[in-house]
Structures are given as structure tokens and as C-alpha cells.
Amino acid sequence: MKKKITGIAAVMLVLPVFIVGTMYNIAVTKASEYQAMANDTQFGSTIVNANRGAILDVNGKILAQSATVYNIVLDPKLLYDIDDEAVREKALQNTAMVLSEELADVQPEDITALFEKYAKYHWASVAKKIEKPTVDKILSRLQELEVKSGIVYTELDTKRYYPQGEAAAAVIGFTNYDGDGIYGIEKYYNSYLKGVNGKIVSAQDANGNVMPYKNDKIYDAQDGNSIYLTIDMNLQYYCEKYLEEQVMTNKARNRGSAVMMNCNTGEILAMATTPGFDLNDRNAIFSPADLEILAAISDEEEYDETYAVLREKQWKNKAITEIYNPGSVFKVVTGSAALEEKVIDLHSTFNCTGELIVGGLEMNCWSSRAHGTQDFQTAMRNSCNPVFMQIGLRLGAEKFNKYLTAYGFTEKTGIDLPGESDGITFDVTTGGPVELAASSFGQTNKITPIQMITAYAAVINGGYLVTPHIASQIVDSDGNIVKSFGTTVKRQVISEETSAIMREVLENVVNVNSGSNAYIKGYAIGGKSGTSEKLEENLAEGRDDLYVSSYCGFAPADDPEIICIVMVDEPMATDQYGAQIYYGSLIAAPGVAGIFKEALPYLGYYPEYTEEELASMDITVPSLEGQIAVTASSTAESLGLKTEIIGKGSTVMMQVPASGSSLPRGGKIILYTEDDIAEEFTKVPDVRGLAPAAVNETLTNADLNLMMGDGASQNPNSTASSQNYEPGTTVPSGTIIEVYFTVKDEG
Fold it and tell me: Which candidate, 331, 425, 365, 435, places its Cα nearest to that of 393?
């Protein structure tokens, strides 16, 4: 009995301690946790979405912006609270009818099922991100059909719009369904753009209904910041225009990319990938070639897998995510390193026999003929592989590797875009002389276009490696600057003196013999082309015709500011004789020239012609109609043009070419002096493959005028590569035939 009393006493003593401890734990230790649980039961919250910040180009043109849209929501409980069964059934049918007719992919049975499934609840989602006109029409129709107000209601939301469509799509990127950036600028600067959602906290009854209360807590949303880019959409247009022209004309299998950058600051002025995609319809396959691939697939599972791969590919920014062998463009790195280390100078001579034996392996020049003895400048102009192999071997593996690192090839550039790839570079500890020799002319290392243009900029800007960047500044919703982005210099790779020598050498590459394929009258441009064989891909596919064609140019050559690289991956086009066209000088150089021809005047750089250029300038055809024929002839001849008078009248009634056209000096104007005289016609000959002098003679004999484009038209070694009229076309005598000339080389 005594033991029982002792036990009871012990329990009575412990129990109060346990109760007090539990109460302390609830009231103090876990007070906030239980308070939150109580609040969840007693209070409801409504999310107030923040507006995502805009993305704008350097001039304030909107590239991405958010606008208010609406989510369509049902209140099933409110429907089933209607006592009159006939009224309730009619409201359900009318609601199902209106929503299915106004919303895509919504069927009447879908609405009925939602009402039944969530009959005890006040919320069931029907559709998200619906634009206001559609919402207004839905609510108006329901009101006309006397559907009880509140059975269908809306919630505010936002939707992302891209006013420029496909322009700079790979750079801008896009958001997912939840509004978070997953590609491009949208992803990289997501934390700045997204803002912070707000909420309204309200009391609610036991059934979850909000009870109006004047002391509801409102937490305002904080709108996201907007980002101004360094990209200029006018320059972006030029890059995309000429890149697309080269990709399409040369039938590139694996897209192309172009980057324009301020070589001194690292500001990205334009960045393009072609074919791209439309940001407002990003799931649609954009490339005609990819659409053909899909069209040939009948198996549904294979189709879906291929579609997913192609869609992912088109979203990627080729300039930063894909690596390639740069080819001869890389020779500017090898050359500048050798000059800086003083293992060569401008007067150093080398011999090219068409091949070089390295480590027992015969390594050939790109050219089928030997270049013979050359100095450094001539070797760069000829893009002679054996010479640059010799230069690389003079440098040695350690010094070569030193400049690979210094120029940034062993690390990412740090550009403010997601998905930048690492390059694959020659390893000095494992490679031998063959790898070093191949690396010297750009065949072994694999890099991204953004790495190549960044290193090239350092070669010609005084030697400074700058970090490329695409954001200019971030501003808040009130226009206050949150963050600005300036120039970041990582290091000086080569001296100002070496850089000046390289600028002169590369300008000579463009201007030699009065013009390369990147030559533009009135402008001092420097540049270098590159052609690399895709050895691994050729081996994997059992072929030998896969190449990468590229060109990197800069202007003004003596004091550079603008640098541009164009890369066309796996060109498959052939010339009129069936030979494949793949040299960078033939494919990518005209792209850079086209971009510069429009971009430089836009940026305030105007042509300054030499006396030689002025002498070869085209002449604007004067208006001669209505003049006395003899007087008209004298007028034309005083300008350096020839005339041919057809008819017995004394007054010029018609002229070909028309006034305002451009003719080269010595071109001919045909003057008709009778109203009813039959106009003379001729057939356009095929001048492709002919030298400039032969083209001029052929067209003159056909009673046609020749107008030469820029590029290599003044180079006696050039040949006609294209003409604006198809051979055999019948045209009026005197018609101007525009012919573009190119030099088939690797310079």
C-alpha cells in the first residue's frame, strides 16, 4: 500500500511539471509555428503579381515587356449553392458553352467536369494568361445569358511579349510558364527582372470565404527592374540580314553566327544566330532544313524525340554555346605572339614548298601551289599554313600555351549570358610538335566565336583583353539607375607596338592588289578569313566535305572601334562548275563587308576616298530626256560616259539606263530619239568565273553595262561569282548588270 501511495505521489509531482513544460513549449518555444498554423486557418492570402521588368536596346527600343492578362477561374460552390435546379443546370450549360467557344482547347465537358470535381470549393482554374478582349467578351456573354455573377471570375496575371519577334531571339531568351527566365538575358538577369510578388492577407470563415475587414494587410508588389542592353537593333538588323544571306546562299547545314563588338570596351553591339526562332512562338521549328527533317519522319516517337532536339538547338546562342576550329583567323594570335616574343619580325622570311614535314607527318598548305619565299606580312596575306607552322614551332609549346591562356582561350570570356561553353585547347604537357603545328594555324583548338572575337579585339586594340558584355545598365520602375556596366580590362596581352604592327598587317590583307572580298571603297578595313575542316565530324559521318567558314574584320583599321566576326557552319553550296564553295574568304568575308557597308555610315564613319578610288568611282547617270541629242551626248561625255543615239529625231525621248542609275566611267547610255521606235533588246551572258577585264568585254559586246560591287572587283586575280540577272535573260540594251567579284584564297 505504501508503494502505491509513493507511486501516485510521484506521478502527481511529475504531471504538473510535464503540463507546465508543454505549455511553455507551445506558448514560447513554438509560439511562431502555432501562430502561423492559426493564421493559415483564420486568414487567407491573395498573391499580387509583380510586373517583370522590360528589356530594351541601347536606344530604348523595347525587346521584351510584360502586360496584364487574366486567369479564368470558376466558383463551383457558388453554382451549387443555387437552390433552383433548373436555373443551376442552365447556368452550368451556358458557362460551359461560352468558355468552350471563347477559349482554345477547352471543351464543354471539361467545364462540367471541373464543376463536379470542385463542387465544394470556391476555386477551379480554367485557363491562364488570357488577354483582356477575350476576358471582356466572356464576361459580357455570361451576363447576357444571366449566369450568376461570380460563378466565373478572373485573377490578374502578367504575360511576356517580345515586340521584335525573331530579332536577337537567342540573346534575349524567354521565360517559363511561371515567369522565370530560362534562356538568354531573361535567365542571366532573372533576379533583377522578376521583382517581388505582393499579397493581400484577409480574414476568412470556417468554409474559407473571405470576410471583408478594414484592417486587411496589404503587401505591395515590387516591380522588377528593366535592363538596357548594349545592342543596337539597327546594327542587329544588319548582322542578321547579311548572316542570313550567307547561310541561305551557301546552304549551311549547321546554322551560322555573327557578333559585332566595340573592340575597346567589350560592348556587344549585335549578336545573331541564323536560323533562329520567334520568341512569341518559340516552340515552332523555324529552320526550313529542320522542318524537312521532321517531315521525313513517320514514327511518332522518333518524331517527338527529333523535334525536342531541334527545338533545343534553335534556342541556343551559337556564338557562345558551340565550339569550332577557328582556322586561319587564329593566325592573328600566333603571329602577334611571335612578334611580341621577338622570335620573328616583319622582315623575317620563310619558305613554303606547299607542305611541311612535322614529327614525320606531311602537313599541307591550303593552296595547291607553293607560295615560295615570303616575309611575315606576305605570309599573312597568303594565309600560308607552312609558314605559320614554322612560326608556331619557333615560339615553342610553352610560349604558345602562354598566349593561349593570355588571350583567354583556356577560360570562358565571362560574357553576361548563360550557357557559355569552355573551349578545348592544345595541352602543352601532353601534345607534341604535330599538335603545336596544327594549333598554330587554327586547326587543333576548338573555341567559341565569342572567344575568337574577344582575343582578336585584343590583337588590334593595343593589346588589352576586355570582358565582353551585353548589359548597359539596370534601372528600377522609377527610372533610377540600379547598376551600370563599364569596361573591364583583364590584362594586357601584347604591347601597343605589336598591336600597331598587327593592324597594319591585317589592313594590308584586305587592301592588297586593290581589294580582297572584304574591301569597301572609302574605308580602311583590316581582317582575316578562316576555313577549318571538321575532321571529327567528317570521320563520324564518313565524308570529307564538312567545313567551317569564318571572317573577322575591324574598322577603322588605323584606330579600330568596331570588330565583327561572321561564321557559317558546314556550307554545302557549289559553284556553276559543281565545285563546293567553302573558303571563309568566299563565304564569310562578303558577309562582314555587307554589314560594315551599312553599319559604318550609321555609326558616323563616312567614306574617305583615295585618288585611285575616286578615279574608279561610278558616275550617276544624268537626266537627258527632252534634250537635243547632240547636247545630251556632250553632257554624258563630259562626265566620262559614252552614248549611242538610236533614231532619226533630234530630241532624246527615252534613255537606258534611266537617270539616277550608277555607271562606271566609260559606261554607255543609249538615247532614243523617236517615240515609236522599237526598243532594242539583248540577252544577258553568263560572266561567272571570268576576270574583271573579261567580264567588261563580254558585257560590252552584248551591249550591256557593267557595274562592279565592292570586294575584290579591282583585284586582277578575282573572278565574277554572281550577277544580278540570270544568264539568258532578255533585257533592254544598255541595262546595267551588277557583278560581284571574289578572290579564291584564304587571305
Answer: 435
**Using CA atoms, how far apart are residues 172 and 499, in angstroms rounded to an integer?**
34
Phi, psi of 274 (to 5 degrees): -135, 135
Distance between CA atoms of 416 and 468, rounded to whole angstroms? 8
| pLDDT for 220 beyond 80 | no
SS3 379: helix
Q: Is residue 249's pLDDT more than 50?
A: yes
Which H/E stretch holds residue 257?
strand 256-262
642 within 8 A of 666, measured Cβ to Cβ: yes
pLDDT band at 67; cut points 50, 70, 90: confident
The answer to whether 579 touches 742, Cβ cutoff 8 Å, is no
For residue 658, which of 670, 649, 646, 650 has the smallest C-alpha distance? Answer: 670
Tell whether the model's pLDDT for residue 543 goes beyond 70. Answer: yes
Count of residues for the chain? 747
pTM above 0.85, yes or no: no
Do residues 634 and 724 share a domain? yes
426 and 472 share one domain: yes
Please give the torsion angle defined by the CA atoms of residues 342, 347, 349 and 352, in that order, rounded to the nearest 10 degrees. 100
Boundary residue ending a domain (550, 582, 612): 612
Cell readout for 171 is 540573346
CB 460 within 8 Å of CB 263: yes
DSSP state of 29: I
pLDDT score recorded for residue 212: 47
Q: Which of 199, 228, 257 is the last residue of a domain?
A: 228
- What does the pLDDT look like over 387-441, one tens digit per residue? 999 999 999 999 999 999 999 999 999 999 999 999 999 887 788 899 999 999 9
Distance CA 434, CA 135 (A): 69
> Which residue segment(s) compose the domain that 491 sits in?
321-612
Q: Give the position of cell 560590252.
A: 700
The letter for the amino acid at 627 is Q
Q: What is the pLDDT of residue 617?
A: 81
Q: How far apart, in whole angstroms, are the C-alpha atoms of residue 525 and residue 508?
A: 9
Is 534 found in the same domain as 418?
yes
Q: For residue 664, say if its preceding peptide bond is cis, omega within 30 degrees of 0.
A: no
Count: domains in the chain: 4
In a domain, 268, yes or no: no
* pLDDT, tens digit (0-9, with 9 covering 90-100), for 37-49: 445 544 455 666 7
Query: Are 56 and 63 spatial neighbours (Cβ–Cβ below 8 Å)?
Result: yes
Task: Measure the CA–CA gap between 395 and 535, rounded to whole angstroms.
Answer: 25
Given a cut of 80, is residue 141 above it in pLDDT?
yes
Amino acid at residue number 120 = K
Domain with residue 684: its CATH number is 3.30.10.20
**Grid-cell match 523555324, residue found:** 286
Q: Are 327 and 566 in contact (CB under 8 A)?
A: no
Q: Which residue has the cell 450549360?
A: 93
DSSP lists the bridge partners of residue 44 as 202
CATH number, domain with residue 159 = 3.90.1310.10
pLDDT in the model for residue 211? 47
Determine contact, residues 526/507, Cβ cutoff 8 Å. yes
b/e sequence 693-703, b meaning 16+ C-beta within 10 Å: eebbebbeebb
CB atoms within 10 A of CB 304: 11
Average pLDDT of the residues in 73-81: 92
Read off the CATH number of the domain in which 562 is found: 3.40.710.10
> DSSP character for 225?
P
- Radius of gyration, alpha carbons of the chain: 36
